[in-house]
Design a protein that fits this description.
alpha+beta; 52% helix; Putative membrane protein; membrane; transmembrane; transmembrane helix; COV1-like
């Protein structure tokens, strides 16, 4: 049987290890993902850089992030050019070709609409978090609030006398896929937490709950 001193020492070592793991694991994973993304970007962009413009050709060394940097500069330049009349005309011409191409036009329009919705400054999509009863009454699920029902969906719901909200229900612990659901507005509980805090709560499986201060009651 181990003595109390040995048990205490083992407990301290275990606690120290867990503390170090909590500090090192997120840092190591973040660094690994960052360099993996840089390597992925370099593998796509660097092969298309002419040798005379590639510093690696002259210095015979690998420069991490060169491809990513060039891609960011190129995207920024394209965004600048598109704002003028000539650039806009070129983009419209390219889009007209894509819009005449079967299959490709559907994919392009869908992706463009998604990026415009997500990146638009005035967009309110996924800026709020809520709770809905799912999958059964009395059981609540965390959802990201997208927008109010629009178009034909809004018309159909109005015929039923209901005001519906589109929400995204992600799974745990990897919220990269999920369910798009339309729920009655009165059955949606809107939370104060930010989407970032909600993502942390989902990824941690409910272990990392955001801090919350109750709003003062106004009499």
């Amino acid at each position: 049987m181990e003595s109390p001193e040995r048990i205490t020492l083992a407990g301290r070592l275990r606690n120290n290890f867990l503390t170090g793991l909590i500090i090192c694991a997120p840092l190591a994973i973040t660094i690994w993902l960052t360099f993996a993304f840089i390597d992925w970007a370099d593998s796509w962009v660097t092969p298309y850089i002419p040798q005379r413009y590639n510093p690696q050709y002259y210095f015979d060394i690998t420069i991490p992030g060169l491809g990513l940097l060039i891609a960011m500069i190129l995207i920024t330049v394209i965004g600048f050019l598109v704002k003028n009349l000539i650039g806009r005309s070129i983009v419209n011409f390219g889009e007209s070709i894509l819009n005449r191409t079967p299959l490709v036009r559907t994919l392009y329009k869908s992706l463009k609409q998604i990026f415009e919705t997500v990146l638009k400054d005035q967009s309110t999509s996924f800026k709020k978090v809520g709770l809905v009863e799912f999958p059964s009454p009395g059981t609540w699920a965390l959802v990201f609030i997208a927008t109010e029902a629009q178009g034909e969906l809004a018309h159909r719901f109005n015929e039923m006398g209901q005001e519906m909200i589109a929400v995204f229900l992600p799974p745990t612990p990897v919220p990269t896929a999920g369910f798009l659901m339309f729920v009655p507005k009165e059955k949606l509980i809107i939370l104060d937490m930010s989407p970032e805090d909600a993502a942390k709560l989902l990824i941690s499986g409910g272990l990392i709950a955001p801090e919350w201060t109750p709003r003062p009651v106004v009499n």
